[in-house]
Amino acid sequence: MESNRLFILSQTPSLANHFISELRDVTVQKDSLRFRRNLERLGEVMAFKISETLPYAEQTIQTPLAQAQQTLLQEFPVLATVLRAGLPFHQGFLNYFDHSTSAFVGAYRVEGGRQLSVHLDYMATPHLEDKILILVDPMLATGKSLVLTYKDMLRFGTPKRIIIAAIIASPEGVAHVHEQIPEAELWLGALDDHLNEHAYIVPGLGDAGDLAFGEKNEKVQ
């Protein structure tokens, strides 16, 4: 963690690097089931790492034989994701934070090079006031959709802690998030080189939503 605001999973050798490698590999990408599972596994890994920074308290548990002292999580975070690519990644977090409530946001970007615009058309979220909020999205490219999503979610209350988790990020996206949401902590699988002229991360992995669920119709009615 750098200044308690940026954590990059790939900087520490672990099996997570194998999962990220398979997500990037054009041959492995042909298996959409495995692609979704790797998104989910990275959500589980990141959830575990983040869980180490959350508040805990000692509690007494009654076993069939005696009482046992356990250090248990005091509060489960709210898990939020942007549809559709975020669903498997979100499921990985939910597998571990199994008592968490969830928020879902529908957002899409209108292509136009680096000047693309982002539109929100759906939001379902629990109360957020004084909660720990983890906003998960596999790809942090420009950062515009995540910033727009978070700022719109503030209608439902101000979290006491905001964590943004992404598998692949660009330096431009990280800078935009830090500028627009200075209180946010960023937890990344890997930080890549740059954005190309179409605002895709390089080397990246392509379109995570298409790879997970099939190519979408780009026409907007």
Automatic annotation (TrEMBL):
Its EC number is 2.4.2.9. Pathway: Pyrimidine metabolism; UMP biosynthesis via salvage pathway; UMP from uracil: step 1/1. Residues 15-214 form the Phosphoribosyltransferase domain. Its cofactor is Mg(2+). InterPro entries: PRTase-like (IPR029057), PRTase_dom (IPR000836), PyrR_bifunctional (IPR050137). Keywords: Allosteric enzyme, Glycosyltransferase, GTP-binding, Nucleotide-binding, Transferase. SUPFAM superfamilies: PRTase-like (SSF53271). Signal peptide: none annotated. This is Uracil phosphoribosyltransferase. The lineage of its organism: Bacteria, Pseudomonadati, Bacteroidota, Cytophagia, Cytophagales.
